[in-house]
User: Which sequence fits this backbone?
């Protein structure tokens, strides 16, 4: 018989330190071929090897570069202090590539591109074999950034260069560049304010890239640009051959027959299209290939993301709403593969006819996997992270909730779970409503140790894909157009109310939590609804008018994002004030815990600090934890531990249960 104990007090082996230790996250996976001409998946050198970058909280958040070695084990390619990361668009773009026998990568500390020899080779290094810089040191630290590295013509590295042109966060210009093996940097083109790096066609004659301009975000509208490559590797005049006019393209790739392919959404779903290189005059420039009513792409937050990889001339590995599938263009079928893996990072690659990528499931965290597409056989290339006993891990329940006006809202419910404890019969558990970031983001049905930290103690979690989330087509995404702070708040509240009405959650012990845009939704929910008793708000937006280019508290990539989310300025300025939590503190429904990185350039600490300063003396319990050296999202193990323990202590105080295993949290009034 389980021991009866109040919800929130169950003893758990899932410590905050255990959560941080399991947080080494693979990203930016690709397949590296040995030196020699590459033809499809075959080359004349060594066989294809799987490489990826890996964020490591235990190393202060350093991003290492890792590969599968000759013995089949993961090994580091670059030793500390190399940190394979960049600030392109502040979210970062693809930070490494291999050209011939040389590795090129960006280093976080100075944002320069560096070269290193491939393991066992000698190219790219100076006389004693060390890593050497390819691009010059900027006059101003981080004043020049590079990202979305790709193999270019004549052994060059192609990339996007981002240059600070003034003191404001929005004073930024961008161009496409080529960096030679000798470190010569040449500008290739500057067609739009925002760009992805060029991709060289298999015959070396053309390059293709995406561009877009404010006020569009890449999931609103992008243009497909193509240019001829001349004899010395320069680009001729570009042509916009497809896209624009409300069509978003999230990925370009050159197909097996040398054709240009795109994941584009003229139908309202990101689907596979062939791009006409003759141009878009008189049409969209797209030819749909095996159209399906499914989302095969995603939001291009980071340039270089890859949702599609060709398997052969007729079949493509794709991510359908984040799950692996094979699109057969001959039969027009979309066949799920390895359904136990419910979320894949947009880093698909193909090696020897198999799909390699980064995936997770309801019982597994992210690992590097190899999947045989014909029968779904899964091989884990990296050991699965050491996890607490399975009986302490909450398994997500996929559900669809309904708003009062009938809108469907997908969500993932993580109920409390413990092998030896149960709550009293007359008590319902507290619940945390988790609002994802973006807001053009989403949740997945995966094991989440952050959530299990709470559920194993008797606190339920529900992760809500409110209107505006990706994965459900453009129509669902655009439910949030000019409705941010309304639709997201209402959808989360509808989920919470349903959990209360069905007897799942305690109405007096519901909190909302989220970071970035989810932090805005959490704070806005606390000032506009009576649904919640508390909120954890992480690195948030709190004053919408100031989070614009004119307001000065936003970076360039998102400087006009709110125009589509809230409304055009200046004509809707009152709407900005009405929806900004910072201007409605008198309506705050309960205590707030604020967590903020002090080096955050996406949501700078200014707004969090004004919010907390305004609460001083208000009588509303609150706490503020600023973290030195942290940017947008927490990367250091020490920060992850401190933030999780503070959040548990916060709920204990607000909901009235003891938390003796974590440091006490002082709530000011």
Assistant:
């Amino acid at each position: 018989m389980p021991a009866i104990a109040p919800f929130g007090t169950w003893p758990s082996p899932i410590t905050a330190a255990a959560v941080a230790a399991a947080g080494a996250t693979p990203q930016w996976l690709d397949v590296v071929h040995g030196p020699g001409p590459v033809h499809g998946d075959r080359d004349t050198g060594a066989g294809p090897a799987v490489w990826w970058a890996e964020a490591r909280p235990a190393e202060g958040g350093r991003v290492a570069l890792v590969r599968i070695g000759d013995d089949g084990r993961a090994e580091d390619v670059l030793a500390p202090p190399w940190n394979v990361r960049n600030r392109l668009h502040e979210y970062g773009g693809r930070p490494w590539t291999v050209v011939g026998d040389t590795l090129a990568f960006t280093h976080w500390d100075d944002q320069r591109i560096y070269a290193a020899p491939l393991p066992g080779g000698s190219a790219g290094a100076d006389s004693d074999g060390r890593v050497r810089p390819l691009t010059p040191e900027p006059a101003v630290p981080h004043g020049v950034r590079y990202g979305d590295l790709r193999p270019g013509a004549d052994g060059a590295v192609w990339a996007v260069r981002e240059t600070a042109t003034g003191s404001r966060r929005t004073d930024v210009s961008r161009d496409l560049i080529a960096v030679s093996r000798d470190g010569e940097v040449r500008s290739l083109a500057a067609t739009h304010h925002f760009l992805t790096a060029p991709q060289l066609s298999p015959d070396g004659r053309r390059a293709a890239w995406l561009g877009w301009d404010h006020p569009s975000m890449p999931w609103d509208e992008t243009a497909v640009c193509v240019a001829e490559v001349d004899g010395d590797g320069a680009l001729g005049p570009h042509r916009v051959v497809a896209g624009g006019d409300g069509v978003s393209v999230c990925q370009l790739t050159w197909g097996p027959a040398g054709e240009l392919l795109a994941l584009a959404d003229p139908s309202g779903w990101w689907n596979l299209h062939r791009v006409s290189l003759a141009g878009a005059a008189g049409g969209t420039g797209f030819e749909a290939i095996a159209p399906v009513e499914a989302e095969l792409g995603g939001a291009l937050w980071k340039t270089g993301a890859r949702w599609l990889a060709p398997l052969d001339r007729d079949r493509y590995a794709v991510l359908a709403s984040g799950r692996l599938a094979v699109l057969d263009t001959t039969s027009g079928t979309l066949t799920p593969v390895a359904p136990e893996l419910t979320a894949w990072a947009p880093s698909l690659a193909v090696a020897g006819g198999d799909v390699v990528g980064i995936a997770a499931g309801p019982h597994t965290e992210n690992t590097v996997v190899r999947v045989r597409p014909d029968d779904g056989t899964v091989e884990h290339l990296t050991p699965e992270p050491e996890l607490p006993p399975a009986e302490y891990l909450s398994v997500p329940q996929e559900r669809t909730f309904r708003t009062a006006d009938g809108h469907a809202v997908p969500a993932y419910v993580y109920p409390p779970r413990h092998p030896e404890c149960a709550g009293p019969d007359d008590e319902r558990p507290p619940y945390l409503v988790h609002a994802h970031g973006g807001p053009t983001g989403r949740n997945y049905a995966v094991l989440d140790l952050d959530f299990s930290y709470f559920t194993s103690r008797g606190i339920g979690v529900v992760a809500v894909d409110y209107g505006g989330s990706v994965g459900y087509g453009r129509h669902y995404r655009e439910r949030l157009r000019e409705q941010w702070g309304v639709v997201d708040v209402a959808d989360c509240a509808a989920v919470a109310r349903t959990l209360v009405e069905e007897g799942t959650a305690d109405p007096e012990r519901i909190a909302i939590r989220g970071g970035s845009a989810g932090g805005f939704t959490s704070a806005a929910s606390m000032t506009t609804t009576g649904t919640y008793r508390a909120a954890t708000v992480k690195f948030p937006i709190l004053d919408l008018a100031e989070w614009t280019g004119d307001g000065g508290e936003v970076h360039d990539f998102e400087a006009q994002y709110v125009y589509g989310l809230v409304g055009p300025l200046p004509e809707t300025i009152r709407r900005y004030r009405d929806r900004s939590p910072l201007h409605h503190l008198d309506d705050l429904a309960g205590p707030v815990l604020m967590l903020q990185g002090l080096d955050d350039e996406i949501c700078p600490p200014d707004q969090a600090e004004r919010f907390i300063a305004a609460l001083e003396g208000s009588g509303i319990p609150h706490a503020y934890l600023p973290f030195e050296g942290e940017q947008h999202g927490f990367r250091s193990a020490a920060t992850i531990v401190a933030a999780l323990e503070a959040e548990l202590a916060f709920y204990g105080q607000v909901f009235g249960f003891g938390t003796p295993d974590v440091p006490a949290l002082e709530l000011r009034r």
Q: What stands out?
A: Residues 534 and 590 are 5 Å apart (CA to CA). Confidence is low (pLDDT under 50) at residues 36-45, 121-128. Residues 637-655 form the longest helix (19 residues). The first strand starts at residue 3 and ends at 4.
